[in-house]
Design goal:
Layout: H1 12-24, E1 47-52, H2 59-73, E2 77-82, E3 99-101, H3 105-108, E4 112-115, H4 121-125, E5 132-137, H5 152-159, E6 165-168, H6 171-179, E7 185-186, E8 208-212, H7 221-227, E9 233-237, E10 248-250, H8 255-263, E11 267-270, H9 279-286, E12 290-294, E13 310-312, H10 318-327, H11 329-343, H12 348-363
Parallel strand pairs: 1-2, 1-4, 2-3, 4-5, 5-6, 6-7, 8-9, 8-11, 9-10, 11-12, 12-13
Helix pairs in contact: 2-12, 9-11
Length: 365
C-alpha cells in the first residue's frame, strides 16, 4: 500500500492515483493491510477495555464488536463497557464479548483501554494506571453537517490529546488527522467472506439500483433517490423512502439477509462524503455490486474509479452513469469482477492481527 514516508506531505489525490496504478499492475492481494501481523506472546492474557456509548446497529459498533471479539479469541480478556443502557446486540450481531456498564470499568483495571466514540474520550483520562490508552476513530468529525456542531471544539481537543494513541479505520482519516497535525495508525476494518459473496444464479434480466443510508442529512439518501432515473428499479436499505421510489425496502435487516439483498442488485448509489470506512459498500462489492460513489471519503481506500467502481465528480451526471452501467454489460461485469476481487482482500482475522500487532508495537514504546 502506498505510504507517506518521513515528514514529507503527499497530496491525498496523488496517493490514490498511485493506488490505482498499483492495482492495475495486479497487486491487489495486499490492498487492505501491511506490516507485521505477528502477535506477541507476552501480551496474551492482558486485559482490554472497549469503551463505547451504546450498541446501536451501525458500522462503528460492528467494527468494535468484531475486533473486541477477535482479541478475545487471541487470548486477551477483552470486554465492552457501555456508557449508557445498551440495546441487545444478539439480534443483529452475536458476540461472545462480555458487555458491562461503564461503572465497572475501574474495578476491571484494564491494561489497554480503547475509546470508540468522542463522548467516551474523557473516560480514558481517569484510567491513570492503564498501560496504553487508545482512541479508535471511525469517522471524520469535520464532515458535512457537523462543521457548526457546538461539540466540535471538544472533539478537536480530544484529537490533540497526547496521552492517547490514535488508531483510524482508513488512510483517508489518517490524512485528515495529519492536516490537523495529529499522528495516527491505520487498522482497516475487515469483511466476513463466508457471509458476503456473489450469487451468480440471480436473474440478470432485472437491472437494479440499491440505495443505503439513514435519514441524517449528511448521508445524502434523498439526493441519491432523486438522481435515479424513473424507469430503473430501486431497492432501499436502512432508511425510510419518503419519495416512494423503492420497490422493496429493509430497515435494519438481520445480517444473514444482507447477502441476498446485495446479490439482487447491480449498482449501489452512495453519495455520502467524508465517511471513515463505509462497511456496507465493501460488503456490497463482495457480492458483485458496482459502487457509484462520491469523490471524498474513506471508501476511496478501496474504491478506484474505472477499476472497481465509478467515482462521481459531478452529481448531475449520476443518471447518465446509472444508464451507462445498465446498458454497457461488459463495463458493468468488469467493474463487478474487480469489486469482488478487491473485497476478497479484506478479512476480520487480518484486521484483528494487525490491531494486536500494533498494540504490541505501541506497548514497547
Amino acid at each position: 500500500m502506498p505510504q507517506q514516508s518521513g515528514d514529507r506531505e503527499v497530496p491525498h489525490r496523488h496517493v490514490w492515483s498511485n493506488v490505482y496504478r498499483w492495482l492495475r499492475r495486479g497487486r491487489i492481494d495486499r490492498l487492505c493491510s501491511s506490516g507485521n501481523t505477528e502477535v506477541r506472546e507476552d501480551l496474551v492474557d492482558m486485559k482490554m477495555a472497549w469503551i463505547t456509548k451504546d450498541l446501536k446497529v451501525n458500522g462503528a459498533n460492528r467494527i468494535t464488536l468484531e475486533v473486541a471479539s477477535g482479541m478475545q479469541r487471541l487470548g486477551w480478556d477483552s470486554r465492552l463497557f457501555i456508557d449508557r443502557e445498551a440495546e441487545c446486540v444478539e439480534s443483529w450481531l452475536p458476540t461472545d464479548v462480555p458487555i458491562e456498564p461503564v461503572e465497572q470499568l475501574f474495578d476491571f483495571s484494564p491494561d489497554v483501554a480503547v475509546s470508540t466514540y468522542f463522548t467516551t474520550f474523557p473516560i480514558l483520562h481517569s484510567l491513570r494506571d492503564t498501560l496504553l490508552l487508545v482512541q479508535y476513530i471511525y469517522t471524520n468529525y469535520d464532515r458535512d453537517g457537523m462543521t457548526s456542531d457546538p461539540r466540535l471544539p471538544l472533539i478537536n481537543d480530544a484529537m490533540r490529546d497526547e496521552s492517547s494513541q490514535k488508531v483510524v479505520v482508513s488512510f483517508y482519516l489518517q490524512h485528515w488527522l495529519r492536516l490537523k497535525g495529529v499522528g495516527s495508525h491505520v487498522v482497516q476494518p475487515g469483511l466476513s467472506p463466508e457471509a458476503f459473496f456473489p450469487n451468480h444464479g440471480r436473474d440478470r434480466l432485472a437491472f437494479r439500483v440499491l440505495i443505503e443510508g439513514d435519514l441524517r442529512p449528511e448521508k445524502r439518501v434523498s439526493d441519491a433517490y432523486a438522481l435515479v432515473p424513473h424507469d430503473i428499479s430501486v431497492w432501499g436499505l436502512g432508511q425510510v423512502d419518503h419519495r416512494n421510489r423503492a420497490q422493496r425496502m429493509w430497515i435494519l435487516p438481520p445480517q444473514h439477509l444482507l447477502q441476498e439483498i446485495y446479490s439482487s442488485c447491480d449498482v449501489m448509489v452512495k453519495l455520502v462524503r467524508k465517511e471513515g470506512h463505509p462497511l456496507t459498500m465493501l460488503e456490497a462489492m463482495a457480492c458483485g455490486v458496482v459502487p457509484l460513489c462520491s469523490d471524498d471519503g474513506g471508501h476511496l481506500d478501496y474504491c478506484v474509479d474505472g477499476f472497481n467502481c465509478l467515482v462521481v465528480q459531478d452529481e448531475s451526471k449520476v443518471p447518465e452513469l446509472i444508464k451507462t452501467l445498465r446498458d454497457d454489460e461488459a463495463l458493468r461485469l468488469r467493474l463487478s469482477h474487480n469489486a469482488i476481487a478487491t473485497a476478497r482482500t479484506f478479512s476480520w482475522a487480518q484486521t484483528v492481527n494487525r490491531f494486536a500487532s500494533l498494540i504490541g508495537e505501541l506497548s514497547r514504546r
